[in-house]
Design brief:
It is built from one helix and four strands. By secondary structure, the chain is mainly beta. The protein has a four-stranded mixed beta sheet with strand order 2-3-1-4. The longest helix is centred in the last third of the chain and has 4 residues, at 42-45. The radius of gyration is 10 Å and the shape is globular. It binds zinc ion. Zinc ion is lined by residues 7, 15, 21, 23, 25, 34.
Length: 51
């Protein structure tokens, strides 16, 4: 199964495509949802899907 990372675009800090990322991403059905450094909701500003 492919693991997806949903990462806020143009965030203040670079994210790692890893569950170990500084933002403490949340796993949801094989998708790790990363948290924006500036507190935005990822779904409000668009996301980048990496694989
Ligand atoms: Zn992250």
């Amino acid at each position: 199964m492919k693991i997806w990372h949903v990462i806020p675009i143009e965030d203040l800090k670079e994210h790692e495509e890893s569950p170990e990322c500084w933002c403490n991403p949340t796993e949801t059905e094989a998708v790790w949802v990363h948290n924006a450094a500036d507190g935005r909701e990822a779904y409000e500003t668009g996301v980048r899907q990496l694989h």
